[in-house]
Amino acid sequence: MNRSINTLFMLMSLDGKISNGASDNLDVDKDWKNIEGLKEGLYQYYDIEQTTDLFSLITGKVMAKIGVNEKTVMPNKTEVTFIIIDNKPHLTENGIRYFSHLSKETIIVTTNKNYSNYNYSNVSIIYYENNIDFLDLFICLKRDYDATNVTIQSGGTLNGLFLRERLIDYVNIVIAPVLVGGKDTPTLIDGLTILNEKELDKLGILKLDECRVLEGSYINVKYKVIK
């Protein structure tokens, strides 16, 4: 394969929600650690996260939401390379500085020509005109950055795009013992909706690799995407 092998790794509710609601003020990382029945087993998600690939694809929007732009204490460096999708941009200079301290390398992927790498030696930018070509991106990541395996931790809309473009090879999900509900609440896979039978070939058909019951009624399921 001439592109990276990609694993979608997420924390979600039993009904597939990756947020507590439609407001940016609501966040599972922030909120679930304070909720009885959820906080007790939540640590297992972060333990599993430590075993994922050393190339991690995330979004600037989510990182801004969790407050990296406001960080005043810089983190210790890790061996992880972060691939950050950020067109707006959502990250400020301080947010980029935070990732330059945290990561082995930070790769900003954007269509915004005004984005600056702020002169950090371990920060690079991949530009695309108009729209990001994600197949080309994953080919580029493997060819130019030796990213043979990438963990995807993005939002439902981008996850949906990866699904429709057949860019997800494995799924690794931690299911929390909670029902969230809400038709406007982001789910694991959002984006374009299938409207007729001719589009059923866009479904992601899965084969179960592993299912583990964790502490506190959490479950970890792993699938291979076979179609």
Quick synopsis:
With 227 residues, this protein is of the alpha/beta class. It contains six helices and nine strands, in the order E-H-H-E-H-E-H-E-E-H-E-H-E-E-E. It is globular, with a radius of gyration of 18 Å.
Can you walk me through this structure?
The protein is α/β, with parallel strands linked by helices. The protein has a single domain, classed as 3-Layer(aba) Sandwich (Dihydrofolate Reductase, subunit A), CATH 3.40.430.10. The protein is 21% helix and 25% strand. The protein has six helices and nine strands; from the N terminus they run βααβαβαββαβαβββ. The chain has helices at residues 28-31, 43-49, 60-65, 93-102, 134-145, 156-164, and strands spanning 5-13, 55-59, 81-85, 105-110, 123-127, 149-152, 170-176, 206-213, 219-225. The chain has a nine-stranded mixed β-sheet. Strand 3, helix 4 and strand 4 form a beta-alpha-beta unit. The protein is globular and about 45 Å long. The mean pLDDT is 96.
Task: Set down the secondary structure blueprint.
Elements: E1 5-13, H1 28-31, H2 43-49, E2 55-59, H3 60-65, E3 81-85, H4 93-102, E4 105-110, E5 123-127, H5 134-145, E6 149-152, H6 156-164, E7 170-176, E8 206-213, E9 219-225
Observed structural traits:
single chain, nine-stranded mixed beta sheet, 9 strands, 21% helix, 227 residues, Dihydrofolate Reductase, subunit A, alpha/beta, 6 helices
